[in-house]
Amino acid sequence: MNKIKIITDSTTDLSKEIYDKYDIEVLPLFVTIGDKTYEDFHEINAEKLYKLVAETNSFPKTAAVTPMKLEQTFQKYIDQGYDILFTSVGSKLSMTFNNAKIAAGNVTKNRVFLVDSNNLSSGTSLLIFKMIKYIKEGFSAEEVAKKVQKLTSNAKVQFAINTLEYLHKGGRCSGTTKFIGSALRLKPIIRVCDGGMIVAKKPVGFKRALGALLEDARSDLDIIDQDVVFVTHSLNEKDANYLKDELIKMGLKNIIITCAGAVISTHCGEKCIGILYLVKE
Predict the structure, then answer these.
(1) 77: phi > 0 → left, psi -120 to 50 → alpha, else beta; which?
(2) Residue 254 burial by CB count (10 A; 0-12/13-18/19+): exposed, middle or buried?
(3) Which 3 state secondary structure label does DSSP give 119?
(4) How far is CA 104 from CA 4, 83, 88, in A?
(5) How far is Cα 65 from Cα 77, in angstroms, rounded to an integer?
(6) pLDDT of 192-212, one tens digit each?
(7) CATH of domain 3-30+63-152
(8) Residues 6+ apart with CB under 8 A from 29
(9) Could you state, in order of their start, the residue ranges of all structural domains in the chain?
(10) 33 contacts: CB under 8 Å, gap ≥ 6
(11) Which ranges in the chain belong to alpha helices (H)?
(12) DSSP β-bridge partners for residue 277
């Protein structure tokens, strides 16, 4: 059986330390602000993003990993004797996954195995951690891909949004237009559903929004897969630590705080924060 290489994109919002620990190749999406384009993760993070937006008064735009870059990366590792597991932001939210399908068709057959996460941010990373687990258990790349694809619908991924501006202008979530600007104290809970994003709840005030995230986790407590739980935020470390502490009080143990990168922050805005986990089959 060939060696296995996990390749993903920068929207998975893990730290460099985690990527390095598990030898994961990270391909950047792109963020354009004004007339300059940056590689997500490598050249720009959330802090730099918001600073540039304030300085330029330009709203950022994002772009997918290109088919050429994906093809080159796939072939490089195939030439080194690897089978490849690839996952990224979901196919309904970015062209990256569809570009990966094009790239996979242009390299050696039966060496690249794709998993459509139907998700974003560390929701995709939940699946990466399962890939790592199954590889350690001795499954082939093809077997891992099939097993992980079946888990995508088990991901519970939702975020509390502090500012509606980025979410609305980014155009990735239906249901925000009708209350943008008319209810500034609403701090909606955005949930990933069927590969897209919906407004799940509309708490008034951010404190209540955090409470809504915790209440949902408490309701799911008996069915949460405790291999890993993520708390992911965009420049909101204080609330991230608060959520982590509350989850620990519930009895959850393996909780990792991660920072949303520039691409995810472009669509969710500053202080956005979420709790992300898999539920048991």
Answers:
(1) alpha
(2) exposed
(3) coil
(4) 15, 12, 14
(5) 17
(6) 999 999 989 999 899 999 999
(7) 3.40.50.10170
(8) 9, 10, 11, 40, 62, 63, 64, 65, 89, 94, 96, 263
(9) 3-30+63-152, 154-278
(10) 49, 52, 53, 56, 58, 60, 61
(11) 16-21, 46-56, 67-79, 96-104, 122-136, 141-149, 164-170, 206-219, 237-250, 262-268
(12) 156
Place of tokens 């242009």: 106
Contact 118, 194 (CB under 8 A): yes
Counting every residue written for the chain, the total comes to 281
Q: Which of 171, 28, 195, 198 is nearest to 96 (CA)?
A: 28
Residue 10 amino acid letter = S
CATH number of 154-278: 3.30.1180.10
Q: Alpha carbon of 75 to those of 23, 64, 99, 168: distances in Å?
A: 17, 19, 15, 38
From 117, 124, 127, 113, select the one nearest 83 (Cα to Cα). Answer: 113
Q: What is the DSSP letter of 188?
A: P
Average pLDDT over every residue of 9-27: 98
Q: What is the pTM of this model?
A: 0.94
More confident residue, 12 or 184: 12
